[in-house]
What we know:
- Chain A has ten helices and twelve strands.
- Chain A is of the alpha+beta class.
Amino acid sequence: LMPLGEWGLVDWVKKSGGRMPAGVTGPGDDGAVLPWKQEADLVVTTDLVAEGTHFFADADPVEVGAFAAAVNLSDLAAMGAQPRGMVAACGAPETVPDEWFQGIAKGLWRALQPFDCPLVGGDMKTAPARIVTGTAFGAVPHGMALLRSGAKPGDVIVATGRFGGPGAALRALEAGRVSRQEMMRVVFDVQPRIEMGIAFRDTGAHAAVDTSDGLARALALIGQGSGLAVEVDLEAVPLHPMVEQEGLRDDPEGLLGVLAAGGEYELLAAVAEDALQEVLAAADDSGVPLSRVGVLRPGSGVHGTLRGDRVDLGRLGWRHR
Amino acid sequence: LMPLGEWGLVDWVKKSGGRMPAGVTGPGDDGAVLPWKQEADLVVTTDLVAEGTHFFADADPVEVGAFAAAVNLSDLAAMGAQPRGMVAACGAPETVPDEWFQGIAKGLWRALQPFDCPLVGGDMKTAPARIVTGTAFGAVPHGMALLRSGAKPGDVIVATGRFGGPGAALRALEAGRVSRQEMMRVVFDVQPRIEMGIAFRDTGAHAAVDTSDGLARALALIGQGSGLAVEVDLEAVPLHPMVEQEGLRDDPEGLLGVLAAGGEYELLAAVAEDALQEVLAAADDSGVPLSRVGVLRPGSGVHGTLRGDRVDLGRLGWRHR
């Protein structure tokens, strides 16, 4: 573990208001130390974002850092965990100036601060390309983590936010209708649903998952994880304005394509019918759009209805790396 | 967090005897979940290893994975922490077959198993080059983590293992005296000193650090961290056989060069004179070579004696990434 101080960032952190919670030993030693005195399970997740795959070499490092933090927080949210800290390892070619690393750290803090989640350490290395690996850890009351398994027949599937934005933005870029910058603004616009993850957990949701690999894939994970079939009403899935802009609402194939593309970092949860009102009220309190998109039934597979047609969502592709 | 199952590795893990401790939810969900029911502080560390910087593109991925795990465990050792789990994020170009990722996971497990430390999750992404980021976490009784600060005037500095191997091996490679494979065997030979880290902690060592960035740098970290001067007897520093082989024992400049090169992943600890016997006995029990290499004094700076000459070790270079 390289001290962030070696990046000249301990100073930056102080100046920016980024602050370590009391009792936390952050950057500057071989490891970070966090008091963990309550009876809470530890939830850990790691995500790698790489030049060429997730961002362009000339992307603003602050945006890249914020994205790297947000996608990790989204995984914690899907587990119903309260973020407690994050570490990040960054690599870049020798020709990349230290300011790039500083930008990454600034972006990480920007995304972490709203959740009182400190950047407790990191690593910085010469690498053949720009990459950032974030690892976030959070706490959840013992035995209460939300898994993909546990959904029950009759559970309603609810989804936060809106879908299809990143897929539609990529399509628009390829057709020359938006700039790279406009596309990346949609891709980088990740709002970790921490509050809703905790609300799902506290209202007794049976299962949850994040939709980073696409809505279809996320539905399949809950269905397979719980040994159930998923029926989804595709017309009830709220769409990102970019989907409308691309005219995809009236193009079933195109719509399914952007829904399969992923990149939304929203949450799906399986909720018992009689807990639904409480969950909707929690979403309302948080100002998070929450939609009822489907239901779980005995059986297997993921099917949707779109304009009266029955669609097999299991056939939608999914890149595993 | 991508389930390792998507790498086809959950099966591999089962076949290899890699096993999750009871109560741990490992790969296959948005995050790993570990029960953390004792009053133990959480210690977290992250390290990135990259093609070109740490290994050649054609390196055996099993060796690369084992190295990535070992360097993280070494940081936990330096904190006096008991390893509890690890996650790893791997990137490689699309042309790299899945077998490379499987080799990485196999290597990670190989290094983790001796410490009963499970690989609880990971991520796998397309990236412009081969990289592995490991993040390890461990437990330490509340308030007992070994930091760089805390050493006291009169403390003895002890060091595990032998020094100069990686630096001498690189020198030998550059001169054509060893093959890339022979050099990498020395570099990849990392033995995480977990048992000694815990022994340092339990015998009341005042400070500890790992020597990954070189002996000189590690001595400086303890000195600066504790506000003290370091006096080191360079002739008491045990040397790797490769250093002898390169004829560096009788070449003070060359010797200082390989000692500054780093890559040893050994531990330094600051121990009170009256705790020294207990520490040496613990090392003896563990079969770990432990040497008395220096002492801490009021003041600042890091100086060594070599053949009667006083050497300023503060001047030795140190690459910060």
